[in-house]
Specification:
The protein has a 3-stranded antiparallel beta sheet. The protein has a single domain, classed as Nucleoid-associated protein YbaB-like domain (Ybab, Chain: A, 2-Layer Sandwich). The radius of gyration is 20 Å and the shape is rod-shaped. The chain is 50% helix and 16% strand. By secondary structure, it is an alpha+beta fold. This is Nucleoid-associated protein DYBT9275_05104.
């Protein structure tokens, strides 16, 4: 009985370590940055690892009130591409931050803890 209790306490300690490391890793995600473009570089969107849009550049030639829809589409495309390309960097960062704290369980995705 005492063996199980000691195992349980050890596991609880590991969970506390994991939570602390995850918090630290999440705080560091703002330092991960990815820029993507659309329209042949006429629109550039920059996102960080916390999935926030932190920069948007629009070529002057695109700013035309008569063609607002195309500009909107290009902005959406650039932002979505940047978010898509930063996703693997986020996963890699979180895996490195929690390396050794959890057994390697195939399919375990810690990105759900990011909310």
């Amino acid at each position: 009985m005492f063996g199980n209790m000691a195992d349980m306490m050890g596991l609880m300690g590991k969970m506390k370590d994991l939570q602390a490391r995850m918090k630290e890793a999440q705080d560091q995600l703002s330092g991960l940055v990815e820029t993507a473009e659309s329209g042949g570089g006429m629109v550039k969107a920059t996102v960080n690892g916390q999935k926030s849009l932190i920069g948007l550049e629009i070529d002057q030639d695109l700013i035309n009130p008569d063609d607002k829809e195309m500009l909107q589409d290009l902005i959406v495309a650039a932002v979505n591409k940047a978010l898509e390309t930063i996703e693997p960097k986020i996963k890699e960062h979180l895996q490195k931050a929690t390396n050794g704290l959890l057994p390697n369980i195939p399919g375990l995705d810690l990105s759900g803890l990011m909310k």
